[in-house]
Design goal:
Elements lengths: L1 E9 L4 H13 L4 E6 L3 E3 L10 E10 L3 H14 L14 E7 L4 E2 L4 E2 L8 H8 L11 H7 L5 E3 L17
Antiparallel strand pairs: 1-4, 1-5, 2-4, 3-4, 3-8, 6-7
Helix pairs in contact: 3-4
Amino acid sequence: MKKVVLGLGTNIGDRLRHLNDAVTALSLLPHTEIDAVSAVYETAPWGYTAQENFYNICVSVNTDLSPNALLGACLGIEAALGRVRTFQYAPRVIDIDVLLYEGVTLQTEELTVPHKEMLNRAFVLYPLAELEIAQYFSIDIEKAKAAVSDQKIIRTNETISCVSCRNDGDIL
């Protein structure tokens, strides 16, 4: 199995429920195991700013799915949870991005791995820093976090229920 990191975000409706529903759906994917889930962070919107704040998390998974198959599964989960794509950076019920995929560098029209903007976004870097991924990916997360320290981000007291996590549902 390969280590993969996904970034999840939501800013419509019951944000915590949407994140929980997405993590549950990810845990049901074939040949995929949830390894760990970060804390929930609240951030201002990126790109289009006339919208509500986001809740963001990162999820570490182990999977035998290919990058494209995993992307397809993530898009299916988004659609099942009510995501409607209207314009870039639009408000969303759920967004699931493939951020990192062990041993893969890929750039296609559908998918870029590593995610091309992840090092520029506090809402990715802060939750990512909580996951134990150093042995799989060579990223200086602390240096990247310092470069985005001007972006406001709040670690909430909310938690994601993850009964299938490697760490028995404890949030890192």
